[in-house]
Amino acid sequence: QVQLVESGGGLVQAGGSLRLSCTASGSIFAIATMGWYRQAPGKQRELVADITSHDSTRYADSVKGRFTISRDNAKNTVYLQMNSLKPEDTAVYYCNLKSATWFRDDWGQGTQVTVSS
Questions:
Q1: Of 39, 74, 87, 104, which is least packed with CB atoms within 10 Å of its CB?
Q2: pLDDT tens by residue, 46-81
């Protein structure tokens, strides 16, 4: 069983920054694709950004140029640096681990990000 523990959420004013962290248990982190998703009230969960085991990244159009995803395999941790935050970024942010090799698709418990205008 993979456990994902997120931290770093909170309340911030528009234009501010936050860094989310997600630490995974187990030994497959380095070969997994790690992602950050978010879900706002009344909306579907959406991909924010992900990063493959080869450090290939992709971002939602709405966050390109403002958010940066990175990973530290030595710490089993993935980060999401969020700059120039907007009220529309307000959501619960979830960490995700995917590994086709090990048939894994695991989720963290979520961390709330609230951006005030």
A1: 74
A2: 999 999 999 999 999 999 999 999 999 999 999 999
